[in-house]
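Below sits the subject:
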Amino acid sequence: MTTETDIPSLQSLEYLSYLDSGGQLPENLQGKVGVYAIFDSEKVLQFVGYSRDVYLSLKQHFVRQPQNCYWLKVQTIDRPSRTILENIRESWIAENGGTPAGNAADEVKWTQPIDVKSLMTSEEQASYEKAAGQEMEQSKVLKNAARRVEAGILASLKTRGLQTEVRFNPKLKESGLLDLK
């Protein structure tokens, strides 16, 4: 078990492939509390996070940033302690020599639902603006845009070889957000 004085260095941990040969996320991390570091295909650190369920967080990050999720390093702990988790995260970021983009300028892309409003086509934007004041019509435009963006994400995940089922929360699509259910 990791304690506050027993923080493993990021470099001492072994790289794990984000997806195994069967296209699955590391299922041994389901329900595990821990800190994880995500690396791109060149093994450049992109994001350091912690979670009460590392597997679910990795799945969420993969959906949001598939182009940046190729390798990871993980340290699990037996008993949830925000202090220990935050200390490990801060130690790894310091060891990296700089804050990765996912923990700085790009943090929203890693930690928040995908907002399809910023990804709408000019036609979708025109339809949305035309429906101003008509909540139901705007909701339909957002839902259709969310479905289009979702299809693109699912195609991208399939290209990467993901075999794990991905389901988005249908209620959020009406407000133009995509997040896993």
